[in-house]
Amino acid sequence: MLVFLVMRKINTKIISTEDVKKVADLSKLTLKKGETEMFQAQLSSILSYVNQIGEMKTKGLLETNVYADLNNVFRNDVIDATKVLSQKEALSCAKRTHNGFFVVKAVLYE
Question: Which DSSP symbol is given to 11?
Answer without folding.
Answer: T
